[in-house]
From TrEMBL:
Annotated InterPro entries: Cupin_2 (IPR013096), RmlC-like_jellyroll (IPR014710), RmlC_Cupin_sf (IPR011051)
Highest taxon of the lineage: Bacteria
Lineage: Bacteria, Pseudomonadati, Pseudomonadota, Alphaproteobacteria, Rhodobacterales
Identification of the protein by name: Cupin type-2 domain-containing protein
UniProt domain Cupin type-2: residue ranges: 85-149
Length: 164
């Protein structure tokens, strides 16, 4: 049975919206935004994260908002990304419009292919810093693959690309 509950917690000047309690940030991104309704903003960020990542096994989004000066400090994150056993990699070429992207494999293995660089096998403990804008794709992964992806900025565009 799927969990359909979202927990709203208010403590120490923070509003936290999470799928599970206790909330856990295995990976997170932070930014400061102009003042707005904190609960509405938390729900919008949560909804965007959920739409994009709901198919990932074990995905449990968390959004935390704290007043900071005239704005709001937003921390959005989730548990570690896990492969869905039996589900193949999408294999679609794409690129991201961002300044920083690092992938750290915590369990299993994954094969990425980068434009002009070929395929790279990453095993548990491997880390790769992907250059901004590089065309890449996930080729395949183990059923037990887990990884952490750290990006900046938190909001960025992903573009579908043709194979190089």
């Amino acid at each position: 049975m799927a969990c359909r509950t979202w927990h709203i917690t208010r403590a120490d000047g923070k509003l936290q919206l999470s799928r599970r309690l206790p909330a856990s940030f295995d990976v997170a991104a932070e930014t400061v935004l102009p003042a707005a309704d904190p609960l509405r903003l938390a729900h919008q960020i949560r909804q965007d994260m959920w739409r994009k990542l709901q198919s990932l096994c074990g995905f449990s989004p968390v959004v935390e908002i704290t007043a900071e000066g005239q704005g709001l400090r937003v921390r959005a994150g989730a548990h570690v990304i896990r492969a869905v056993p039996g589900m193949e990699s999408p294999g679609a070429w794409h690129s991201h419009d961002l300044d920083f992207q690092m992938v750290y494999v915590t369990k299993g293995w994954v094969v990425f292919e980068y434009e002009g660089q070929g395929e790279h096998l990453l095993r548990a403990g491997s880390c790769v810093l992907q250059p901004p804008g590089i065309k890449h794709r996930e080729c395949r992964h183990s059923d037990d693959m887990e990884l952490i992806e750290i990006i900046s900025p938190a909001a960025f565009e992903t573009r579908d690309e043709t194979a190089p």
